[in-house]
Amino acid sequence: MIRSISLPGALQYALNDTANGATLPGLRDKNAVNRRAAAYVCIGPQCSPSLTEPAELAKALKEQRSL
Question: Which value, to the nearest 10 degrees, does the dihedral of the CA atoms of residues 43, 45, 49, 52 take?
Fold first, then answer.
């Protein structure tokens, strides 16, 4: 589902469960949620709330692509 969305110029960062995004300003305080993987869709300094379901992430990415 998510792999079928074209995201030219997008950056993806993966953090393990012991890391936080403190070294990357846009990822500061972005962590797993209740030990579940979480995604954050960010445009510039604005990020979405944590997304833990693949369908939520796909919807957010598609919405951002339409802006």
Answer: 60
Burial of 39 (0-12, 13-18, 19+ CB in 10 A): buried
Sorting pLDDT into bands at 50, 70 and 90, what band is 56? very high
Report the alpha-carbon distance of residue 56 to residue 53 in Å, rounded: 5
Query: How does strand 46-47 pair with strand 42-43?
Result: antiparallel
**Confidence (pLDDT) at 30:** 80
pTM of the model: 0.72
Q: What six digits make up the tokens of 49?
A: 């709330």
